[in-house]
Structure formats: C-alpha cells, structure tokens
Design a protein that fits this description.
Layout lengths: L26 H9 L37 H25 L3 H33 L19 H4 L1
This protein binds zinc ion (ZN).
Length: 157
C-alpha cells in the first residue's frame, strides 16, 4: 500500500483575499439585528418563520437565508449561556441557605427551561446574522454550492 504525502507550503495556498471586492458587512449591527429576529441585511424583514425556523428569504430585501449553516451552534451556545447563569446561582443559593432539594427542583428546573427558550431564538438569530456578515457558506455569492463532504468510507467498499 502506497501512501502519498503532499506538503503544502503557506505561500502555495490560494490567497482567498485576492480579488475580494465584496463590501464589508458590519458584524455587530448584523448580530444585533439577528438577535432581534430581523434580517441582518436590511433590519426590516423577519429572519424567522415560526419559533426557530428561518425564512427562505427576507420579505423586505430578498436576502436569502436558506443556506445558513447554524446547525448545532445555537443549542451549544444556549446551553453554555444558561449553564453559566444557572449553575453559579444554584451553588450560591445552596451555600447561603441550604434549602431542601424540592425547593431547588422547583426553582432551577423551570428557570433552566425558561432561560433556554428565552435564549435559543436570539442566539440562533445572532449566529445566522454572523454567518451573513462574514460571507460564510452560501452567504458568499462567489462560493459554490455548500454541500457536505462526501463520505470517504463510501469509496472504500
Ligand atoms: Zn432584508
């Protein structure tokens, strides 16, 4: 079995910034618009169609949203944010007052669910808007179709 190694020197890599004439998109403004559930491009149209499903495109400016790749990032960041709120608060209450377990359960379980639902949509909106602002995935008009890599195990058989 022959294994070929290929060394790629840094200067041999294609310069992605060469000929890049796309205008810079304001990242912070886009994120705030996305958090508010608004189109990151115009700030007028709605980003979401339902609670978490994104619209196919903005009804105000026509910016397409269907090619975002937020995937697992919104729940990941939601869990991280909610965990960093709930766990210190839970530990502080336990250290200060040592309430009974049923009191902990009645406080922290509903609060965790409430905060998760409160953060999920703004976090997803912010991530989709960030992808738009950075021309990631299908938001880059120069990029090809952003399809998943073919399964390498399929060629072995
Ligand atoms: Zn728009």
């Amino acid at each position: 079995m022959n294994v070929q190694y290929k060394t790629v020197l840094p200067d041999a890599q294609p310069d992605s910034s060469a000929g890049d004439t796309k205008p810079a998109r304001p990242v912070r403004r886009s994120i705030f618009r996305g958090m508010a559930g608004k189109c990151p491009a115009c700030g007028q149209g709605k980003l979401f169609d339902g609670f978490l499903a994104t619209r196919h495109a903005c009804e105000a400016c026509g910016e397409a949203f269907h090619h975002h790749r937020a995937d697992d990032a919104p729940p990941y960041f939601t869990i991280t944010i909610v965990g960093h709120i709930i766990i210190p608060a839970l530990l502080a209450v336990e250290v200060l007052w040592r309430p009974a377990l049923w009191i902990h359960m009645t406080i922290w379980i509903p609060l965790t669910i409430l905060l998760a639902f409160a953060f999920m949509r703004p976090v997803k909106g912010a991530l989709v808007a960030l992808q738009w602002a950075l021309y990631m995935h299908g938001f880059d008009p120069d990029a090809g179709e952003d399809l998943p890599e073919p399964d390498p195990a399929a060629s072995i058989k």
